[in-house]
Amino acid sequence: MIEVNHLHKSFRMPSKDKSRWKRLKAWATGREPAKDAVRDISFTITKGEFVGYIGPNGAGKSTTIKMLTGILHPTSGEVLIDGLSPHKERRKVVRRLGVVFGQRSQLWWDLPVRDSFDILAAMYRTDEQHKKRMLAELDDLLTLHEFMDTPVRKLSLGQRMRADLAAAMLHEPDILFLDEPTIGLDVVAKRNIRKLLASVNREFGKTVLLTTHDMDDIEELCSRVMVINHGALAYDGTTQELRERIGLPTILRVTFRESVAVPDNAQHGFSVGDGNGGTELTVHFNRHEMQAMEVLRRLEQFGAVVDMHMEEPDFEDVIHKVY
Length: 323
Ligand SMILES: Nc1ncnc2c1ncn2[C@@H]1O[C@H](COP(=O)(O)OP(=O)(O)OP(=O)(O)O)[C@@H](O)[C@H]1O
Prior knowledge:
This protein has eleven helices and 13 strands. By secondary structure, the protein is an alpha/beta fold. A six-stranded mixed β-sheet has the order 5-6-7-3-8-9, sandwiched between helices. It is globular and about 70 Å long. Adenosine-5'-triphosphate (ATP) is lined by residues 11, 35, 37, 55, 57-63.
């Protein structure tokens, strides 16, 4: 179980004063300006939950995760992992945690995957038999044998993510922190990783906290989502309720062979945006109510369509809408 109570983190920022003396004085007296990266966050995650932790760049996600793992000390407030404080009892806590960073691997770049696992097993003092049993279980789940003897630098991104996931689970932690595990993957690899993450949660019973900028990750995997913005928790609830709250329209940009004039009519099922009267028209529609093909079919009554381009609402707009 993860308990977070009134968590706060502020960073002291170097003074911008031009005078070196004043900058030194600000540093020595602790009067440098402070930046609040995480502001009074509280939540509880119970065993077996799969929770999304989302927010725009700079919102405070990594800072929170770093406090949960004991890398950073909170300025105030408290984190408890199974009743233990990560920064006071770091050794005990890290045994219960597995962490995957999509942007950087915790494996040794030039070594075969197998050697990285050996090093990690030694670091966690996992005995040989236990390691073999765990690797066999993880191989069943993640098909590791395909690349066990390949140096990490030669793995595809999807394979590297599978190897990193195995590395994070080798010491059998109950809790996984996944920081953008699908970043950079193509559609097929993303789908595979999502399937694996779902099994890790359902079959292995791991509690998962997932940070991502990919709304599909959230929609497919998480029963609960927390949104953080400017360091504060803006939403904590089910994905279903979040989806309903979002309700932002999808944008369709359509190019017609000739200029069109489309009357803005609620009966269309879409609303007309920029470009009416010209050849490039923007329309907005709700994907939950109507499919893009149906919108196109209706638009074709007004002229021949030669090209189209669909855009989902911007992630940050979605988050703003959540407030
Ligand atoms: N060591 C640090 N010193 C000063 N400021 C920091 C430090 N680490 C983070 N910050 C600031 O705290 C705020 C929150 O940063 P954080 O990395 O937690 O955001 P994030 O939500 O993880 O963003 P991203 O999605 O871009 O990874 C940002 O304004 C960042 O500049």
